[in-house]
Design goal:
Elements: E1 2-7, H1 17-33, E2 38-40, H2 58-62, H3 75-84, E3 87-95, E4 101-108, E5 114-119, H4 139-142, E6 152-155, E7 158-164, H5 171-178, E8 184-189, H6 205-220, E9 223-228, E10 231-233, E11 236-238, E12 243-245, E13 251-254, E14 261-266, H7 270-276, H8 282-285, H9 292-296
Parallel strand pairs: 1-2, 2-3, 7-8, 8-9
Antiparallel strand pairs: 1-14, 3-4, 4-5, 6-7, 9-12, 10-11, 12-13
The structure holds 4-methylsulfanyl-2-ureido-butyric acid (CDT).
Length: 340
């Protein structure tokens, strides 16, 4: 399958959906010209990244959500993709008819039909206003945890699965899809390079992005297509380095800008088989009887000194790591709660 990863540069708050859809159409046209069959677009691709603001007016919040997909502003994207015979994957903020809000991604086939939907499960950030931050990350406030698990579907001969941004950092995300035979994981991301609670990690943002996706690809014998919304958006620098990653874990294509940019790769699904039948032959090598803690426990509860762990006993919860430490003795200032 020839797959395009259509990275978007920044979307400012004043940009309309119409402005964004025009940019998406340009990327679709380029994808068609370069032989793509499927184009992957970023997380929350229709607006600026709204969780960076504390908002209390529900109308203001809801202005970032789609109540129908396609709706009047997104219809041209669906129509043009269908005219071009392109499938695409799109991230957007979804508001349901019964008033639930999710960070959602859909796979749309070349006939304009939604064939797979995923609602983000690992919501990063915080739920309350934290004014000490340079910018907010309020996904836990504006979205509910997704209720669809990680479904996969067969599309153009590949087993395709979806996840979104922070999900890519968690091995369980890929494994749940790996256990369904996934061959192509499609994901979008909005990753601020600065992480206010852990600024000492900022210089590793690009490394951690690729580390997570490359490990997920290799350990589950799948292609992974990770697509950024990148660049300086409302003063916040978002990571680029969108990448198409082979089941070997190797990056086969990567963007070189933080603007609108298409990268393309021929994703040979046979490469998945090589790994699925050898090193990662799950039926042969997995030992789920030893993995119970993974589904029974959320937090880590280290063994007490001098005692071996009892994997089926929940330990006392450990206090969280706390706020960033002042770098110098005597540094002053409010010490904020250290949350992601
Ligand atoms: N959108 C999203 O999920 N962003 C998060 C930022 C977390 S801060 C480390 C991400 O995991 O990229």
């Amino acid at each position: 399958m020839i797959v395009g990863a259509a990275q978007l540069g920044p979307i400012q708050r004043a940009d309309s959906r119409g402005d964004v859809v025009k940019r998406l159409l340009a990327l679709l046209h380029e994808a068609k010209a370069r032989g793509c069959e499927l184009v992957v677009l970023p997380e929350l691709a229709l607006t600026t990244f709204s969780p960076r603001w504390w908002m209390t007016d529900q109308h203001e919040i809801d202005a970032f959500f789609e109540t129908e997909m396609p709706g009047p502003e997104t219809r041209p994207l669906f129509d043009e993709a269908a005219r071009l015979g392109l499938g695409f994957c799109l991230g957007y903020a979804e508001k349901t008819a019964d008033d639930h809000r999710y960070n959602t991604s859909i796979l749309v086939d070349a006939g304009g039909r939604v064939v797979l939907k995923y609602r983000k499960i690992h919501l990063p950030g915080h739920a309350e206003h934290e004014p000490w931050r340079a910018f907010q990350h309020l996904e836990k406030r504006y979205f509910e945890v997704g209720d669809l698990g990680w479904p996969v579907t067969r599309y153009l001969g590949a087993v395709v699965g979806l996840c979104i941004c922070n999900d890519r950092r968690w091995p369980e995300t890929y494994r749940v899809m790996g256990l369904q035979g996934v061959e192509l994981v499609l994901l979008g991301y909005n990753t601020p390079i600065h992480n206010p609670p852990a600024p000492e990690q900022d210089h590793l943002a690009g490394f951690h992005n690729h580390l997570s996706m490359q490990a997920g690809a290799y350990q589950n014998a799948t292609w992974v297509v990770g697509v950024a919304k990148a660049g300086r958006e409302e003063g916040c620098d978002l990571l680029g380095q969108s990448a198409i990653i082979a089941p070997s874990g190797e990056i086969v294509a990567m963007t070189s800008s933080v603007g609108d940019e298409l990268i393309v790769a021929r994703c040979d699904l046979e490469l998945c088989r090589g790994y699925k039948e050898t090193t990662f032959n799950f039926a042969r090598h997995r030992r789920p009887e030893h993995y119970r803690l993974i589904v029974e426990r959320t937090r880590s509860a280290p063994a007490q000194p001098g005692r071996s762990s009892k994997p089926h006993t929940l330990g006392a919860p450990r206090p969280s790591r706390g706020p960033p430490r002042p770098s110098r003795v005597g540094a002053r200032g409010v010490t904020p709660a250290r949350r992601q």
